[in-house]
């Protein structure tokens, strides 16, 4: 039979892929730990946790075991009028570890739907209370997903261009870099003072898709405090930052004010199964808890709280809560810091940023930050040729490895980055 790669070309349309420019997808047949293996047997170090989802490594035997047991017990059941142990247990466990004091868990199937649910919760919260609050504030260049609501609260970009006129109107505050963080906070304050803002949505500490743009907890705390003063609901989109990526279990663990609504996905199941969670406070929930059926949150998906996905999430939490995982996250963060200081002064490094296990390097390639840029394709292929999966965001390369990634693999990644810096020198 023809290779997976060849057959793929006839039938598959890939996500985020200019199909004419990138016709070849690498056929992956297996994975273990931080590695993926293609059909020729070539090994790739998965330095980006397969789009930020894999926490404990590929095909983890413990998660596989738990899933396989659950599969022969209950694979799926409707989640309206029915419930099951994996969903209840997962909700119980998440509520004990999530920042703030959320008391209810609403399930869906991915990060975008977790955000859609959060937006609907916030808008209907004020609708149910009979208050006119219809505005949403977000951070410039944000990314909250690809469905229409999630796109609306995301920065307008090449991703959204074709749909811009269909997206609802959102106020964006400037990204809080060192020079203008006071201005950013003041802008939020001014918008909130209008009294019509239902929700403020934000990626806490790290804006992933924007280019791993980072800002300090003090700024996040200042935003949150302003929202509390004005009774604007805070939606923390921890889809990427959740489950240990930024050093603490959740990015919002670094601030004293707590979000009202938290979105989770990606690492939730350790990267094994699609699952989304929107957690909220009892105050949010109570606005829907009424004899009037009109106050119901009429939202749901066929695979809401799928038992296999919930089981994968429970197994992932078991692994995440082990000392070994905590130590690994510290180890990776320490290695990143060492490497960062090694290359910080290189002339092709414009900026270098780190939050826990995430390391981002902004390259001086005199090119605009554009998803389609050729230099980006060159850098992607440079790493792929050397058996490393790194997907640059424009001129920003980043490493966000699964927590099981060995020092040896980290060193291979780092030395390849150094080789790239040399190569860019000579271009
Ligand atoms: C990836 C991402 C999403 C969207 O999640 P999907 O599962 O891809 O729909 C939302 N918010 C953030 C911060 C993300 O990184």
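Sequence proposed for the structure above (427 residues):
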């Amino acid at each position: 039979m023809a290779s997976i790669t060849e057959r793929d070309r006839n039938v598959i349309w890939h996500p985020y892929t200019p199909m004419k420019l990138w016709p070849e997808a690498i056929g992956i047949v297996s994975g273990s730990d931080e590695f993926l293996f293609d059909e020729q047997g070539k090994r790739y170090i998965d330095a980006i946790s397969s789009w930020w989802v894999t926490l404990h490594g590929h095909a983890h035997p413990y998660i596989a075991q738990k899933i396989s047991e659950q599969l022969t017990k209950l694979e799926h059941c409707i989640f309206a009028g029915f419930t099951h142990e994996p969903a209840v247990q997962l909700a119980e466990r998440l509520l004990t570890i999530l920042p703030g004091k959320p008391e209810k868990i609403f399930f869906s199937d991915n990060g975008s739907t977790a955000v859609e649910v959060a937006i609907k919760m916030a808008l209907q919260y004020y609708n149910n209370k009979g208050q006119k609050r219809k505005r949403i504030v977000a951070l410039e260049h944000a990314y909250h997903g690809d469905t229409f609501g999630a796109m609306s609260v995301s920065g307008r970009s090449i991703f959204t261009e074709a749909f811009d006129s269909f997206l609802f109107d959102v106020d964006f505050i400037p990204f809080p870099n060192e020079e203008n963080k006071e201005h950013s906070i003041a802008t939020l304050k001014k918008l909130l003072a209008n009294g019509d803002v239902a929700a403020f949505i934000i990626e806490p500490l790290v804006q992933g898709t924007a280019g791993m743009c980072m800002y300090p907890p003090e700024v996040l705390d200042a935003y949150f405090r302003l929202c509390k003063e004005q009774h604007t609901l805070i939606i923390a989109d921890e889809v990427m930052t959740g489950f240990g990526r930024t050093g603490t279990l959740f990015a919002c663990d670094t601030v004293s004010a707590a979000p009202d609504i938290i979105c989770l996905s990606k690492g939730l199941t350790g990267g094994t199964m699609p699952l989304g969670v929107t957690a909220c406070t009892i105050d949010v929930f109570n606005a829907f808890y009424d004899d009037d059926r009109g106050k119901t949150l009429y939202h749901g998906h066929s695979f809401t709280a799928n038992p296999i996905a919930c089981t994968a999430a429970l197994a992932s939490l078991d692994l995440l809560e082990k000392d070994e995982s905590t130590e690994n996250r510290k180890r990776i963060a320490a290695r990143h810091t060492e490497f960062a200081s090694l290359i910080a002064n290189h002339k092709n490094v414009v900026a270098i940023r780190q939050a826990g296990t995430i390391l981002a390097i902004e390259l001086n390639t005199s090119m605009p930050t554009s998803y389609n840029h050729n230099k980006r394709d060159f850098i992607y292929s440079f790493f792929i040729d050397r058996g490393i999966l790194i997907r640059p965001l424009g001129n920003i390369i980043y490493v966000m490895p699964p927590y099981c990634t060995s020092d040896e693999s980290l060193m291979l990644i780092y030395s390849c980055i150094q080789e790239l810096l040399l190569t860019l020198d000579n271009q």
